[in-house]
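Handoff note, outgoing to incoming analyst
You'll be picking up this chain. Sequence as last confirmed:
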Amino acid sequence: MRMGWLGELPEDCISNIISRTSPRDACRACSISLGFKSAADSDIVWEQFLPTDYPEILSGSAAPVVFSTKKELYIRLSHSHLPLDGGKMSFSLDKESGKKCYMVGARQFAIETRDNPQLWNCTSSPDSRFSEVAELLNIWRLNILGKFDTRLLSQKTTYVAYFIFTFSKGTIHGCNSARMSIRYLNKRENVTYKAAVNTITTRIPTCRSGHRSGHQSLHRLGRRRKDGWMEIEMGQFFNNYGDDGEVEMRFSGFQFEKFGLIVEGIEFRPKHDAQ
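Most recent structure output, in case you need it:
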């Protein structure tokens, strides 16, 4: 391939140009020529795609993160999750944009009546990234509340919050009317307000039998993930500079006896244009 004057530039200059594109473009540049591959794989490029506070994020991991290049680190963080805060939270990168993604584990939630072992079971799951998940045993009043500091997220980014769950032995009962919402909590003015947040009410189809019909109804409402869990969108919000304080996430339902729901956590991912 004839590169013209562009191929005559020093490698550092080519790297600086590529660093102003995207991770996808940098990977494509590798196929242009050997010179471009060297420039596109350089730390100059992939340092720009990593969050500026990545050293601080890595320091919060219980196990050291070993990598030889910044591209290797980016690929690792975009294809797996990094446990943080004693395993109560996990971090990863959005593969397309390099934006931050976080999942908050069920241990971090305020769950009403959680301390009653007849109603909730704090158990482990081999399929979960967390050491503990919350299993709903038998309850009428369901109220799950979580909070997250938006300063941890990427700035100038619209985020989508997802409720991550599965079923106990493939069954669920009574969750025919569940409300999921997300909103900002403004600490500066000590008031609660909504700011560019969708508060939604999700009506889960009635599933009184507690067996296959309920599983199929909830299966249609949620989306199956690659890790085997399911997810439902709770809402969206725009994170400007992270100075709006915390967002509050709530999952609630107050009708009918309920059992069979297993909660892994709530995940924050940047919204893609197709969403």
